Amino acid sequence: MDALIYAAMSGANRVLQAQQVHANNLANLQTNGFRADMEVSTDQRVPGFGYDARHMTELQANAVSMRAGTAVETGRALDAAISGEGFFTVDNGQGEAYTRDGAFVMDDNGALTLNGRAVLGDGGPITLPPASRMAIAADGTISVQAQGQAQMQPVDKLKLVKPAANDLIKNEAGLLVSRSGNALPADETVKVNGAHLEGSNVSAVEEMVSTMNLSRDFEFQMKIFKAADDMAATGNRLLRD
Amino acid sequence: MNPAMWVSKTGIQAQDAKLQAIANNLANVNTVGFKRDRVLFEDLSYSVAQQPGTQVDNNRNSVSGIQLGNGTRMVGTQKLFTSGNMQTTSQALDVAIVGSGFLQVQMASGETAYTRAGQLSVNAEGRLVNAQGLPLLPEITVPAKATGITIGENGMVSATMSGTATPTELGQLTLANFINPTGLLAQGGNLYTQTAASGAPVEGNPGTDGRGTLKQGALEGSNVQVVEEMVDMIAAQRTYEMNTKVLSAADGMLQNLAQVAR
Fold it and tell me: N or C, where is chain A less crowded by C-beta within 10 Å?
């Protein structure tokens, strides 16, 4: 069989996987703080003598877009959005993970959590005292007006980090972790907007256009399949006549 | 099969759930003491098709990998306990809570439920009950000959009896506070019950320890913002639509494939 069909196959395979990346982005269009996955394809030389003209295509998808999502005011004291670059830090069980989602919730012990994971401050997990009012300041300081107190008192500070885009990678749970595996240092320059939440940074337009593109790409690969099939059939006929 | 189909399916389901929450919020725009729900999503786990940093040959590591997401999932809904608009009704038995805290009522089962809706009335036995007729806790009984009922900011209920000039104190209303009101379980009927996530209620007089004060002759409206819900609805609907588009694109690709391999 002509090797053409295998090259086309690698193309069709890439399209299927790339389609999943875009489908996932679109499915997370309403996920707070979601960072879109990016997908590129690279050519891959087929190793071995005599294959110099053969290049298969391969998908690369492990980078995330760092574009900011839209911040929406929610009015809830424990919501926070980061303006500009930066991330909140949560504990994912095996170390630190980073996220832009700031819909924090207190559990019954007063520990600040995000979707069940402990939110980390400068000195580890944050625990807040019973309070009637809470606020998150621009530098991430959480102040509370404890019961029986007249004044707001700062109790802890969110750990905010500001890594370069290529230092982060998504783990299997969909959280961002550092590529090196080491915890990132806190950064003082990150700005937080209290009572706001950041939406997903997925661009619906881009994702729809990519989806259309990929569908057509797939169609082309199918045409090549067909061409390869026709050529083989013609060859078979030659022998018959 | 094309994995994009299942990924889009999760997106469609998520928007379905979100639309239900929005519809419920909108339906309760005029419900006294209603607190809006919001739906939270999280991306599903990723499948790593190729780990970045695997060794390609003796002195080369692959610089990139392939990670494919599996869609979205609903992490949960949250009740947002921001305050609603104050409506002045001038009814003696309407109370609004200005600030945090919940009125307590006794459910038919004997359990205590918590509510922000303060449309109170007096039942046949003279007991102070809420709009559904559930008796308020602590119990307050209004004598038949009481004329004007006053509910103070500190929760003191008093009434003047016919024939006397000085008001008589009937009882003290208390408010319950929770460390995590978001963790309360909504029972419907404007009622919430305590859960392990909400923590235990901390009961006390209105105006003390950060509890709100009571305002007689006013009601707290729903905290649903109509415009916000409409915008959310448009976003949810369009997201739904786009996910179905990807679904049909994935379907089209499979159809193409099937036609080639007749």
Answer: C
